[in-house]
């Protein structure tokens, strides 16, 4: 029997995890469900016997890494989150997989397969130190292959969270520290808990370019470009009356990025 802990503050996400766990061929027991960083610290401080952890990252009272950095966890972690920017933090812990919400059962099952590959025996047969050595070896070989770009962004409202596809975004814009995404219907969405700088790491640089200090534009929605002034380019966006402009120090790089 594999003993697992669920670290998740949203009830629908916990229900989904438990539903997927029930579909697994291997016997799994959920021994604890935790919702906050404080819960994580309190539960794991006594080093309970846990074979595997399923963990969200942004919890009710903060970021789960605030707890994991204080604990010396020996159990492998499968991260299940809506945020792509924490993947490096995940691999600096005992993370073995990084599932981006909303994820399918197929991806969930493959993450479990990785656990069994690393754990050549049953969870009770393999010593924790052996598992940690295998984790170190695995990620030293595969860290560069693991990075994936964000394909959606969660947008939180007071009542619910919805998901905005990256392929539908015309451009991102930062305004007084708040980042907005404009979709192909020219609707404006507030992106929570991110910055324009972090967005550059989360999206494919072949598809998005930071044209100035506050705007990041999608290549596929650039309708046409023209000279704005001596050192700047005006960018007409498809399906939008908005005209964006490159900063002087970005113009040459932007032209090179476009191949013009």
List keywords for this structure.
single chain; 260 residues; alpha/beta; 5-stranded parallel beta sheet; 5-stranded antiparallel beta sheet; 8 helices; 17 strands; 30% helix; 32% strand
What does this structure look like?
There is one protein chain. The protein is of the alpha/beta class and 260 residues long. 30% of the residues lie in helices and 32% in strands. The protein has 8 helices and 17 strands. The strands form 5 sheets. Strands 2-1-3-6-7 form a 5-stranded parallel beta sheet. It has a 5-stranded antiparallel beta sheet with strand order 12-11-10-14-13, with no helix packed on it. A hairpin with a 2-residue loop joins strand 4 (58-59) and strand 5. The longest helix is centred in the middle third of the chain and has 19 residues, at 128-146. The radius of gyration is 22 Å and the shape is elongated. Mean pLDDT is 85; it is low at 121-129 and 138-146.
